[in-house]
Amino acid sequence: MPRLQKNDNFIDKTFTVLADIILKILPTSKDEKQAFYYYRDGMSAQSEGEYAEALEYYYEALLLEEDPYDRSYIYYNIGLIYASNGEHIHALEYYHQALELNPQLPQALNNIAVIYHYQGIKAANQNKLNVSKFMFEKAAKYWKKAIALAPNSYIEAQNWLKTTGRISSD
Questions:
Q1: Where is it predominantly found (predicted)?
Q2: Same structural domain, 77 and 31
Q3: Range of the domain at 128
Q4: What predicted TM-score, i.e. pTM, was given to this entire model?
Q5: Sign, CA torsion 99/32/79/15
Q6: Which tens digit of pLDDT belongs to each residue from 146-155?
């Protein structure tokens, strides 16, 4: 089951060794440990651009993982893969599933906003101004939530919100 890491750098090796040690001493079930191994292998495959392989590992992890917080990160990572492949509808579905389990996930909120903003720009370029405005408002809604959770992050989004008059300049 363990994935052979092609990227054998010191940090990856150290993380893997530490994670294995922690898993051995923590009082977790066999399924939870197995879910973590699948998740870790999914992250490794994802970092190497092996998205199909990563999805397989993440889906296996979802079958075993019971903790809502941990499941939220699995859903989030699946959303990242779909977004990077341009499958925005699927990405949005997984980001929303992540948020249902963990509403305190600003990166999911940000990524949803990015997709809506992209759709707003696309609509504006096609002269679909009502659709564009609607998408920009949705983007603003999600960026405001993300910024509320992580005020020192998403500076470009904060600037966009200010320059478009969607939040005041303080």
A1: membrane
A2: yes
A3: 104-169
A4: 0.84
A5: positive
A6: 999 999 999 9
